[in-house]
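Honest question from a wet-lab person: if I give you the sequences of every part of a complex, can you actually get the arrangement of the whole thing, not just the pieces? Trying it with mine:
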Amino acid sequence: MTEGNGQGEQPALSPENQAVIQLTRKDFVSDQEVRWCPGCGDYSILAQTQKVMPDFGYPKENIVFISGIGCSGRLPYYMNTFGFHTIHGRAPTMATGLKATRPDLMVWVITGDGDALSIGGNHVLHSMRRNVDFKMVMFNNRIYGLTKGQASPTSELGKRTKSTPAGTIDTPIMPLTVALAAEASFVARSVDTHTEHLQATLERAGYHKGSAFVEVLQNCNIFNDGAWRDFTDREVREDRMLMLEDGKPMIFGKERDKGIRLRGLHPEVVSLGDGVSEDDLLVHDEHAEEPYLALMLSRMWWPEFPVPVGVLRAVTRPTHDELLTGQIDSAVASTGEGDLARVLKSGETWTVE
Amino acid sequence: MTTETEEPRVREHELDRVTIRFAGDSGDGMQLTGTQFTRTAAVFGNDISTLPDFPAEIRAPAGSLPGVSGFQISFSSNDIHTPGDQPDVLVAMNPAALKTNVGDLPAGGALIVNGDAFTQQNLNKAAYTANPLTDGSLKQYNVFEIPISTLNARALEGLDMTNKQVDLTKNFFALGIMFWLYERSMDPTLRWIDQKFSARPVIAEANKRALKAGYAFGETTEIFHERYLVPPAHLEPGVYRNITGNEATAIGFLAASRLAHRPLFYGSYPITPASDILHQLSTYKNFGVRTFQAEDEIAAIGAAIGASYGGGLGMTATSGPGIALKSEALGLAVMVELPLVVCDIQRAGPSTGMPTKTEQADLLQVMFGRNSDSPIPIVAPATPAECFDFAIEAWRIALKYVTPVVYLSDAFLATGAEPWKIPALKDLPNISVENATDPATFRPYARDPETLARMWAVPGTKGLEHRIGGLEKADISGNVSYDPENHHRMQVLRAEKVAGIARDIPPLEVFGPEEGDLLMLGWGSTYGAIRSAVERLQADGHSVAHAHLRYLNPFPANTEQVVRSYRRVLVPEVNLGQLVMLIRARFLVDAVGYDRVRGKPFRIAELVNEANRVLKSSDRWLAGASPRSSESESQQEAQGADQ
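Yes, you can. This is the full assembly:
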């Protein structure tokens, strides 16, 4: 098993890494000109990513950003780390092979709603269940931006786009529900414009050992402007979003006067007072062994509910590379280092004089 | 032996070569029976060649025609190249096996049948209206009807087994008969039984009794009047083992990992006939081999690319349909110029085709089956044992030229076996390469002036942080570029890099005269049939040579000179003319193809016939007749002769 930021939350710092921690955001800015549309939410995600990167204690040459296709796919070019802009939907597969061969690296996968949930859906499913130790940041703008405005798997039912002039007839996917169903060990949501929350969320993801799935609600001001505005705008966000805090009751609202209570198997919004106290509210538990609570949160949506943001689930289980390395180590321990000459001569042999 | 009797009841003969086919229901253990006979013949010192032939159905209905499984082995005191055109002996365990195989048995051939299996029910399942054992339809063969099931059950009496378990051992009774008939020791199989069933002593005892009972039956009954000895072959001195193509492929890749000092990462999605490589490599964990059963073909190659990006030996294997799925990722590997080996163990297609049957029809797919000009080197071993060498060679090229490489095998190579002289470790090539480490000189797309390999730096190298990807790269810097002239330059550079490998591979060797009337040019698993055909043609006094391409992209540097040195070039392929198209296009040589896609290897005789036809038509052509009309005429003749 590899040491490092094992056991979850804090990286173990080697003397070399202590020096690295002196890095700043600027060290992670590459010399490439950023080419997203002015006003795109991706700028903020890039900036927050660069800001949190020095915190993890990895030398920047040990950090790899891998992306698929779409506007999000460009991000690695702007990070002064190792970077690999792969093909549509397949970034998790490259990350899996890389991590299996190089457990020493910190690997980030940058993807979008089309890349991760449409063409690459199968790989999200399987990398999460394997608990491959990478951090997947999915930019969700509910639209295909790079191909100029077609419906995506998260576009709302009835959405009119270039490819769906009469409205899409496909029920949208709930990304976090998918990640949880695929056994992701870390699942979180944040918003491009909520910069502090986004930084904190990326930081949590970076410290997580295992598959981390972070959905970032991101605005495409060209093809789907205001996709999340109804609940993310500054004036309404406190009433329409639920900031999850581990171990705390689920309270929201400008006046912190509303909460989430469980009735039977269903959540409901209640007003505090009038016989309802904080003790009646659901208490968030990121570490619950079974993901029932997280699954419920993943399906709560405006306007019926405030939209939960923050960490829905964070549990520890062995990662793919730990298990793989473990099998290798135990094979070596039980049979010794491989002897090629012996393999060549295995089975029945005979000698011709 | 029979020395104590005055008049030997059984006459002994010495033969150079015998071909046996075991055929039965897929539940009858024919593959195991064939494998045991193969091991025994190999250990005895014969040259061997095998052809397993099994249905895709895991358990087709018992006794049915689609459920028939066969295993042909040819063993010889000479150097042989094929599992034999036709069996000398057919062992048929039931009516369905008889029906599907007897057509290949030449008149006078020996036919050993399990008479107990010829019940009305089994005859119905095989769609026999009358019992072939009694209706006279087999009179051209030398038929030995033996109640194998009954005799075997009697031999196993007293063992604590169900009737069904007893019946499952009858294949070893048949094997015992064959061991007696061909004067083989039972020892290797008895040892194998002890090892295999060490935890189940009753089953071990049953199989040993079945084998010995079959042998004793051969010795004591009076139905066999002859037995045959095929003396050991004169193989080159050394230590040998028996090996299939897939086994040789797997240990070749293992060796490549050792020789390159890099961990092997093998991503694969289960697919016939490539899965055995995954199974075998997954047992080499103590070598640091990382096997990864991916969620699909695309993930398998994606993970392999990721492993190579990290500095490992990333590879994947599949068959034709899987290559189709991997094509986009192969293009990425071309663009990012990372070492990668992709194996295509070809099978009959298109689409799902005939998954367990052989074909060599993916050549053009791996050559051209990607968007844009996307050159990839291709190597193709010709025999099961060569699979080992070319697994290493594929990695030598991939690492030295920093490029994806395709390794083409097929179902016949993958499952066929031959003796393999085990190489000494010190004779294996050093294929290790260094990664870039110097920030002062590192440019991601700067190239080695000789090989045109780009500078390859792996994550974790201080000061060498850089970005690669599927977008076109600026020459040298590797930054994203849409510059028109740069794109042209990069396309040419990628093509030249692959073409330049021709300077680094052995020339195409010719077996036979350096110039003459006919060159038979092949690639891949047709080697044995073509070589045997050319040997016969040469023995008949024809001026015929054989050349076999192991490198299909690029071709060896002397290929053009070789194909121009003969009046005619005949290219036999188990496809509808793929290599012949490349040869004609590349060299403007009037090569002709010979193609039969039956899911089976070529027979030697059909290649001899075709070569004779081409030789004859070229004589007429030289005498003044138009080649086209004379060819179609002789084709009719040849067809007439076939019927």
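Two things worth pointing out. Residues 1-12 of chain A have pLDDT under 50 and may be disordered. Chain A has two domains: 15-248+284-341, 250-283.
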